[in-house]
Amino acid sequence: MEDETAAPAAKIRIKTNPYIPHEVVTEILLRLPVTSLLRFRRVSKAWNATICNDPSFQCTHLRRHRTDDPCLLIAPRIHAIGKNFNGSLSGLYQWEEDHAYSTATALLYPMPVPPFPEFLEAHDLVHCDGLVLVGTRSAAWVLNPVMRRVVELPWGRLGDSTSFSYLEAFGLGRDPHSDAYKVVRFFRPPRVEVLTIGSSDDRCWHETVSQPPWFHVKRRPAAICFKGSLIWTVDQKDRNGQLGFLRFRLDEETFSLIPPPPCWSWDDHEASTLSELREVLCLTTSVGLMNRSLDMWICTDLDLPQWEKCYNILSDWTQPLHPVAMLGNGVLVCRSSGNYLHRCTFQPGKGVTVNHTICMNDLRYDNVDEGPLVEYPSRTATYFDAIPYVPSFVFI
């Protein structure tokens, strides 16, 4: 006998998940920041494969988000009293533009680096497309902090040679021809080694065929990666030589000299700082009494370099300011000696004014793996690196 309690066939509803083409899902994922994609990897195996294992997805995502508003990575260098080291990096901390003193700065990556033998051997952090290079005279690492991946680089023959044992500067950049990332080491007397990350011979350095000019380059600030080239500032030790900036093309591995702005002097050169702000090469130098004014020049073409004076930063700060990053809403972050960061905003008439000063010693730092908050007062932290950072899925 027919079951009278059964639902009529017309009323039966079969629930099915709507089908979304993979191309549509991929386009949606490409619009999301890395921090969101790291969570969405757990949604399904297909999503995880697209996000983590598809090189074309990773390249397209990087291209779309390369100009996103960066945050800052802050790396305290710790001084241990009574120990045989000075300047050990404790970790990379992520500082957002709206960060307040009452909010802890999150630990993005605990440094896998052993204590440095000497503080002066630690070079400034170098960055490119979400990768960070940590280098000393005796060791170097390339890491992707958000992906928690790190590669320890081998040591080349120039570093082992007694004749060329002094490592003067590091650089990290992307070769626009091959899309490969290269680490560059500049030795004194001038010789240069290059290592390509991710290539079949990525465990071997090679010396450049083109010899660098007989220049010393500044170790601080670190080399700027701009439009497929690394750029160092010529050191004042070469006062008998030409003023300017040494350019190394990552595709051809050749050298050239970029001239400074017109009427540039050695005093201007010594006080100058190069930085890359929103895909524009910026050169700043302190002017006026008590360093209370900062001229900013810009250059957009390295093949036919021409400097245009664009802004003047006015400040009641008595130490030279060095631009670090251009954040959201036109906020320019500068730093000065004494481990200070300065928020600056653009004003009408091409002026920039400092409106907020932050001491990195006074910030609180959140060590997620250890639980309690950490403070780095002046007696323990000798120096703070601060670099712009845009998370990426660049594989190393």
Automatic annotation (TrEMBL):
Q: Which superkingdom, per the lineage?
A: Eukaryota
Task: Enumerate the SMART domains for this protein.
Answer: FBOX
Q: Which Pfam families match?
A: F-box, FBA_3
Identify this protein by name: Uncharacterized protein
Q: Which organism is it from?
A: Aegilops tauschii
